Structures are given as C-alpha cells and as structure tokens.
Amino acid sequence: MAEFRVPERHAQLLEFAQGLTPPAGWKVEISGDEIIMMAGPSVVHQRNLLTVREQFDAHRPSGLMPSENTDLASPNVGKLRNPDLTYIPVSVVELGGNEVPAELAEIAVEIVSVSNPENDLVGKVRDYPLMDIPLYLVIDPREGRVVLFSEPSGGSYRRRWDGTFGDTVPIPAPFDFELATTGLIRYSS
C-alpha cells in the first residue's frame, strides 16, 4: 500500500502556522486554508472547564491523560485544532513535539467563547469528525446549552445529544458516565 502524503499546500500552511509566535494568551488553529487566532479564555470559561474536567478525571480510563490546549494535528485533511480539553494516550509523550495526531484523542471538549462562537459551533463540528475524534462535547455558556456529538462517519457525526445546563449528559465509552451540568455557569449579559 502506498504511503499517504500530506498535500503540499496543507504542509506549507502547517509549517507557516507553527512558525508563528502569537501574543501571550493566544492560540493558533488551522482549518483548511484558514489560520485562526483566538484570545485567551475568560474566568467563567475556565470555571466551566474545571467543572467538566474534574468529572472526566474521575472517570478517566487508565492509559489516558487529560490535556488542555494541546494541538491536535490532521495534516492529511489540513486541520490543526486546539481543544480546551482532550484526553489522549499517555504514550504520546514518547512522540515528543508539540502536536498529537488527532486520531489518538478520545474526546474534544470546547467551552464556546463569546468572541468567536462560530469556531466551536460550526468549524469544529465540521473538522473534528474529519479528524477522527470520536466524541465532541460543546458547552455553550452564552445560551446555557450542552451538545454531545458522537459516532463520526463519512466526515460528520451520526449522533447528536442536546441539553441545557442542569441536564445530565450521557458520556459513552471509554469514559462511560453521566456528566452533571448543574455546576456550569452562564456568561453575564
């Protein structure tokens, strides 16, 4: 079988993005031919992320580690994304570097930002299944909503679970628990 080669255009964009030095508190992502720079998160964002992470940590399978703001790379589809939280194999440390192959991630968790909600609600819903990330959990403090996407197939997620803050989210294997959302808080108006 022939070895897969990254399209030259995507390789050049990835190399360019990796050479950028964003200001402190900013992060860089790639989606297709677009470089996306995002400002650091708010205190409400961080508080909600902690609420979610503590529950995932309590149900973390052996051999997986949590990682916040890790670059997940899928150069074959021209994607470099940086979820707020992901769980990846501990063995990725052996790979070295600053990027993790996206297909190794078990989940991507995003807390929707006030400044660029379309990135989390549209761009990443499009990109994460293409990157073979099996679960995508979206927490939206603007609207008080929670969405869990699962079962990527053919470039999109086949399943979608919708709820509001206060609902219990059924998180499937490998975590297999009920995520309580009562502790999540909304952004102030």
Describe this entry's structure for a reader.
Residues 22-180 form the Putative restriction endonuclease domain. It holds the Pfam family Uma2. GO terms for molecular function: endonuclease activity. This protein has 189 residues and is of the alpha+beta class. Helices cover 22% and strands 35% of the residues. It contains three helices and 13 strands. The strands form three sheets. Strands 3-6-8-9-10-11 form a six-stranded mixed β-sheet. It has a five-stranded mixed β-sheet with strand order 2-1-5-4-7, sandwiched between helices. A two-stranded antiparallel ribbon has the order 12-13. Strand 9 and strand 10 form a beta hairpin. The termini are far apart. Residues 1-5 have low confidence and may be disordered.
- The whole-angstrom Rg is 16 Å
The average pLDDT is 86
Identify low-pLDDT runs. Answer: 1-5
Biggest sheet statistics: 6 strands, mixed
Following the backbone from N to C, one meets helices and strands in this order, namely HEEHEEEEEEHEEEEE
Organism: Kitasatospora phosalacinea
GO molecular function, one term: endonuclease activity
Protein name: Uma2 family endonuclease
Pfam family, one: Uma2
Which key features would you list for this structure?
single chain; 189 residues; 13 strands; globular; 22% helix; five-stranded mixed β-sheet; disordered N terminus; alpha+beta
Question: What would you say about this model in short?
Answer:
This protein has 189 residues and is of the alpha+beta class. Helix content is 22%, strand content 35%.
